[in-house]
Amino acid sequence: MIKIKKLHKSYPVGKDFLHVLKGIDLHIKEGEFVSIMGSSGSGKSTLLNIVGLLDIHDEGSYYLNGQKIESLDEKKAAILRNKFLGFVFQSFNLISYKTALENVALPLYYKGIGRKERQEIALNYLDKVGLKDWAKHLPNELSGGQKQRVAIARALVANPKVVLADEPTGALDSTTTDSVMELLKDINDEGMTVFVITHEQEVADQTDRIVTLKDGVIISDEITEKGKKTKHYV
Length: 234
Prior knowledge:
By secondary structure, the protein is of the alpha/beta class. It has a single domain (30-56, 71-233), classed as P-loop containing nucleotide triphosphate hydrolases (Rossmann fold, 3-Layer(aba) Sandwich), CATH 3.40.50.300. It is built from eight helices and ten strands. Helix 3 packs across helix 4, helix 3 packs parallel to helix 5 (144-156) and helix 5 (144-156) packs parallel to helix 6 (174-189). The chain is globular. The two termini are 15 Å apart. The mean pLDDT is 90.
């Protein structure tokens, strides 16, 4: 599903360059539940941005669903994102003046789906995350956990191949964190690939595989106890 070889990424800093990713090799199979761990500055957010087609790499290769990603303009990148990827962010990124239902339905608008059908599909996904009764509420009327559930429903509504979650529990308390992780596990159990960026060990331990970055290189790639119990990767 995601195949990365010898990936490099640098950013200009004054007259010099900051080498953020230094030859990353990573293969994530369809249906895996993987967390990427690392301290601030390790390169994990840069990796997520490249996987999510929000940034481009300098060297190496990246394949998404068998397609080599290179020389994409923003229009082509947006089409691929809409087709294959769903995003969940720490800050939720909900539109404040739109209801929960309207926020979830938004990706379907960009797919050209009619209003009535959009709302029916969006309501179904709100029901899946336990928020059907909150469909007409604005984000400021929701708790942090509810906002993240709306964000997850929005990520799922276009039926992506991969859900990319960037610190999805970073703004939540421990109880709400567990409920959001359970929801991500349920999504993964249905066959979706889930890719989580986190700095929290207790969050990573709930995934099947932990990839740890340090200074732009992978220093470990381990199957967790949970992963050993539930799945076997060759």
